[in-house]
Write a sequence for this structure.
């Protein structure tokens, strides 16, 4: 697995041999994220740097000041309300059959059934 990008969505890039393991790691990061003060500060610094560099993924209304006003609890609340199966799309492309992709998706995400009313993230 090369990397998982989380500031603009998520994706993985992996060889055929490592894809199943990469998808398992990715699914755990989505379903059981580690949201603590250290990871929050590190991610916030990356986003602020991107905004200050004029990254096209962020609208002009997002500023360094608006980002610095966010708290870890804000992020957890957003995550719990929005990062749920009904708001999520999984796309698998590459040298894989539809049947194999479906099987791997079910294995990795099949038990994920949290709704927006459940508050799972507490780390």
């Amino acid at each position: 697995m090369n990397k998982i990008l989380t500031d603009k969505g998520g994706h993985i890039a992996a060889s055929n041999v490592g894809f199943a393991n990469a998808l398992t790691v990715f699914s755990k990061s989505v379903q059981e994220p580690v949201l603590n003060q250290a990871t929050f500060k590190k991610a916030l610094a990356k986003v602020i740097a991107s905004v200050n560099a004029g990254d096209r993924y962020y609208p002009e209304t997002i500023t360094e000041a608006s980002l610095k006003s966010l708290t870890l609890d804000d992020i957890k609340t957003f995550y719990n309300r929005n990062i749920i199966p009904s708001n999520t799309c999984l796309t698998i492309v590459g040298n894989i059959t539809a049947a194999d992709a479906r099987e791997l998706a079910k294995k990795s995400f099949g038990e994920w059934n949290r709704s927006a009313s459940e508050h799972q993230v507490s780390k």
User: Anything to note?
Assistant: Residues 51 and 62 are 7 Å apart (CA to CA). The helical segments are 19-31, 37-52, 64-68, 72-82, 98-109.
